[in-house]
Amino acid sequence: MPRPSSIVSIRLKVLFGMLLMVTMVFLLAYGWEFLIEDWFPILWFDENGETAEEHWEYVFTSVGFTFVGMLIPFYLIYKNFIRIHDNEQQLNRLNSDLQKEVDRQTREIRIEKEKAEAASASKSDFLARASHELRTPLNAILGFAQLMDIDPELNQDQKKHISYILEGGDHLLHLVNEILDLSTIESGKLKLNIQKIGIGKLMESLTPMFESMARQHHIRFANQISSGPDIFIQADEGRLKQVLLNLVSNAVKYNNTGGSVAISWKVERETFLRIAVVDTGLGIPLDLQKDLFEPFNRLNQRDSGSEGTGIGLVISKKLTEIMGGHLNFTSTLGKGSRFFIELPLQNNNPDETR
Question: Is 107 exposed, middle or buried, given 0-12, 13-18 or 19+ CB atoms closer than 10 A?
């Protein structure tokens, strides 16, 4: 920003330049002859008998009016220039103040972001360490319980109690594994093996498990992925199985007795394969759908009797996104839900829906 002394210097230079311009215009308008004859009357000879006093009065009057008449517009121009210059200085000051405020807020946001990232990294590291520490004793407990379960000398009550240990241990181990997965994903340390996978062959291996799961809850399961030329996608096979297992498991758990679950696929935008899991279950209320992908949020299902941790769907969504796709859903209360994932195709372009 210019100093006040420099501003005064600029104004004086402008004023001097304007006066010089007025003088030049005056000289061009009246000529040098006027100066010699009218301004220096000692060299001028009166042919009409005019006195020197009258002549000087004429000179001062004409020159004064002419000079003032030419000076006024230049003065107005000068004042306008000064006003523009002052406005420019004020605008520069405002811009400088605004830039300082933006820089300050940017620094604060960066600091807060770094703090949040550090806190998130600490949380993920803690969860990962805690999960590892919990899995070791849990595996030992489950191992001893399994050995006791095959003991032929146990009576029915003892076997029943051991089944409770196994059931609770499996549930807790599943929770620990999901927390470990979530912390690994959030810390960015998850490693995937993206490869070419045939979806038809994959479903053939998963269908018996899905059918058994559905039978236990008296649900009909339909694999609508027909046999025929296989279609290939790019994904991590183990993680894709985990995602599909979570979607089908939820569709079975939150279904109505005698309901149905169906799985199918369809090519979208010629580059993605959409795998959909459709159920005829309870559906999700519209006001709760926005909270579906929040960790540990079971959407008022804690007292429903259905097992779950509230993070399986969150993990499935993050895994799908890491594999280059996305997971979404539609749901109508009382009619059921439709969850689908989209993953990149691998050199395929089928037109049919299976």
Answer: exposed
**341 pLDDT higher than 90:** yes
Indicate whether this model's pTM tops 0.70.
no
Query: Which of 141, 139, 130, 142 lies closest to 180 in space, CA to CA?
Result: 130
Where in the sequence is the domain holding 99, given as residue range(s)?
4-110
Residues 205 and 331 in one domain: yes
Within 10 angstroms of residue 182's Cβ, the number of other Cβ atoms is 23
> Which of 186, 207, 228 is the last residue in one of the domains?
186
24-27-30 Cα angle (round to 5): 150
Helix (H, G, I), strand (E, B) or coil at 306: coil
Asked if 252 and 215 count as a contact pair (C-beta separation under 8 A), the reply is: no
Between 224 and 125, name the one with better pLDDT: 224
Examine the domain organization and report whether 172 and 78 are in the same domain.
Answer: no
Residues 174 and 45 reside in one and the same domain: no
Q: Is the same domain home to 211 and 275?
A: yes
Q: Which of the 8 DSSP states describes residue 345? A: B
Question: Is residue 17 in a domain?
Answer: yes
Which helix (H) or strand (E) segment holds residue 278: the answer is strand 272-279
349 in any annotated domain: no
Length of the chain: 354
Q: Pick from 298, 307, 331, 174: which is nearest to 249 by CA?
A: 307
Look at residues 186, 217, 233 and tell me which one is the last residue of a structural domain.
186
272-279/220-223 β-pairing: unpaired
- Give the pair of three-digit tokens for residue 83: 């006003």
Average predicted confidence (pLDDT) for the chain: 76
Residue 291 lies in a domain: yes
Domains: count for the chain:
3
Structure confidence by residue, pLDDT tens digits, 87-128: 888 888 888 888 888 888 888 888 888 877 777 666 667 666
- Looking at per-residue confidence, does 78 or 42 come out higher? 78
| pLDDT score of 339 | 95
Q: Which amino acid is at 227?
A: S
